[in-house]
Write a structure and sequence with these properties.
Blueprint lengths: L2 H17 L5 E7 L2 E7 L10 H19 L5 E5 L2 H23 L3 E2 L5 H11 L5 E6 L6 E6 L6
Parallel strand pairs: 2-3
Antiparallel strand pairs: 1-2, 4-6, 5-6
Helix pairs in contact: 1-2, 3-4
């Protein structure tokens, strides 16, 4: 990760916490194709459980990088590691469901979910032998189907 990007994000989020009179720690780490920012603390002014707020603040941070450094960098924002923990649970659930699909030989359709979550499941199961995934539905009703992979021809 470019040290200037790391420093700019640290300043941006530390400044935000200072303006809001919040105490916390800012963690900035490289992540596949983006930068992971984890704000750690017991925040009162920041709506930590609001995905729309989190996404909007991440876009604002990316815009800051674009204007300050002319760097096009995607920012993945988290509060106290909650989102990362949720993603790990989602992947673990998908892996368990994949095993069930293999054992039962029938597809399982998951609940509707946002594009990022669907992508995470598709990537997590891409290399799992015996299953394949695809998405069905439209708009906010789009969901992942995990199904048995067709047997290979002899």
């Amino acid at each position: 990760m470019d040290p200037q990007v790391r420093e700019a994000l640290l300043r941006f989020f530390q400044g935000l916490l200072a303006v809001l009179k919040e105490e916390g720690r800012v963690e900035v780490l490289p992540k596949e194709g983006e930068v992971y920012v984890n704000l750690q603390g017991n925040f009162k002014a920041l709506p930590q459980d609001d995905p729309a707020f989190r996404e909007a603040l991440a876009r604002l941070a990316a815009l800051h990088l674009r204007t300050a450094l002319r760097a096009a960098v995607a920012v993945d924002l988290d509060f106290n590691g909650q989102e990362e923990a949720r993603r790990r649970q989602l992947v673990a659930r998908a892996l368990a469901l994949a095993e069930r699909v293999k054992a039962e030989g029938r597809p399982i359709e998951l609940e509707p979910m946002p594009p990022k979550d669907r992508r995470l499941i598709h990537l997590a199961l891409a290399e799992v032998p015996g299953v394949r995934t695809h998405s069905v539905g439209r708009d906010e009703n789009r969901r992942v189907v995990i199904e048995p992979a067709e047997p290979s021809a002899p």
